[in-house]
Amino acid sequence: MRPRWTSRARISLRPASRRFTTLGIETSCDDTCVALLTTSHSSPRATLPFHKKSTSDNRSFRGVYPPTALAGHASSLANLVSEALSSCPGVRLDLVAVTRGPGMSANLAEGLALGKGLSVAWGVPLVGVHHMQAHALTPRLVSALDAPAAAAESLEEIAPSFPFLTLLVSGGHTQLVHSRSLADHAILANSANIAIGDALDKCARLILPPDVLASCPDVMYARALEAFAFPIGEDGMGSYSPPLKRADEIAPTVSPHGWSLCPPLAATRRMAYEFAALESRVQSIVSDLPSISVPQRRDLAIDIMKVAFEHLVGRVLIALEEDPSLRAASTLVVSGGVACNKFLMKVLRSMLDARGYGGMRVVAPPVELCTDNAAMIAWAGWEMYRAGYETALDVTVLKKWGVDPSGKDGGILGVEGWKRRQA
Ligand code: AMP
Ligand code: ZN
């Protein structure tokens, strides 16, 4: 168990203009995350006096192993909260925001139980946050953190304003979402089976040379795949040229090394994502090349990311072509761990430009806010609280919880447990 990163650059709890302080807790997977977020009802500016995460070491399982992740929360969470409170002497909590779902039940329960306890002990409201809503709202947090101290704009002007499009690309989800308002996020495309992060992690385990794999500091093998594919970073991505039309996009990627890769769901414009087949394709390519060289591995890494990312962006283009009303969303947010990938951003920007959407703004949160974190939970909790929502103390965690109001469970607000506060 080791703290992965911490940020205290923005400490500014000024008693004279006491701000609203939210404690955020995130435990849905293997990251134990705690944050203190200060906001104000009169200014769009937010600060993060405390933001820290501790990640259990799952490397020997080559992926997240739920009991190990749970033990990590049990040993780290209370200590992180204690550290947060003692790092800001005199802090007074106004709200506790904790991830209620979706995620691993036992892991969520560890966070929710402590969140309830803190809410009772401090006599402050609780908001049970939807993890995916929090990812989608993260760019609004980023602009609030970046707002100048004397920002005079109204809270309603926090960017991006609704509606906007979001690509949620993480280890557990791949979704194209139309975010129409705070709690109304319509899913336009979803992954049929495994998420893009999971698929790239699995491909990376096959492609990375054994010594590179062995030196990975965690189980985010896809991050290591990007670093391996582009050792000089973005400067090495210059040779990418986007498919100029759908026919080019669905043509197989043929390598001079002899393999070819077919884009997923090439024969259909159905709004869905499919990444499961990538791993088996890589498996068969690698077993056909018993003495695969490092340059071959590097080219395979680039090809697999190209195919996965063009599939991702291809569905964004289909959505925009089929429903012109979506073009009112002039911002495309990319969030979740895979959004850290600079080659994804290159493919996305290049394809949008090449296909007539050069005016669409693409924003991705900084790395520490792209992967799971508690700042986004605190922010989403605060946005919900400000809109009049609190969570009852008798709620339980939600392993599955849709984000789309037209879904089976009614989306974020469709589940039981919300209490509406009169403004
Ligand atoms: P999350 O589920 O949002 O915490 O994101 C974790 C997922 O993001 C894992 O599958 C990681 O391997 C993946 N990830 C992190 N960094 C990168 C990167 N640079 N490129 C691709 N995937 C990444
Ligand atoms: Zn996540």
UniProtKB/TrEMBL annotation:
Keyword set includes tRNA-binding: no
Record-level GO cellular component terms: mitochondrion
Any one GO molecular function term: tRNA N(6)-L-threonylcarbamoyladenine synthase activity
Highest taxon of source: Eukaryota
Subcellular location, principal: mitochondrion
Known catalytic reactions: L-threonylcarbamoyladenylate + adenosine(37) in tRNA = N(6)-L-threonylcarbamoyladenosine(37) in tRNA + AMP + H(+)
Cofactor: a divalent metal cation
Cell compartment(s), UniProt: Mitochondrion
The keyword Metal-binding belongs to this UniProt entry's keyword annotation: yes
Enzyme Commission no: 2.3.1.234
Listed GO biological process terms: mitochondrial tRNA threonylcarbamoyladenosine modification
Keywords: Acyltransferase, Metal-binding, Mitochondrion, Transferase, tRNA processing
Entry note: cofactor: Binds 1 divalent metal cation per subunit.
InterPro entries with a match to the protein in the record: ATPase_NBD, Gcp-like_dom, KAE1/TsaD, Peptidase_M22_CS, TsaD
Domain Gcp-like: residue ranges: 58-379
Record-stated family: Belongs to the KAE1 / TsaD family.
General function of this protein: Required for the formation of a threonylcarbamoyl group on adenosine at position 37 (t(6)A37) in mitochondrial tRNAs that read codons beginning with adenine. Probably involved in the transfer of the threonylcarbamoyl moiety of threonylcarbamoyl-AMP (TC-AMP) to the N6 group of A37. Involved in mitochondrial genome maintenance.
Quaternary assembly: Homodimer.
Protein name stated in the entry: N(6)-L-threonylcarbamoyladenine synthase
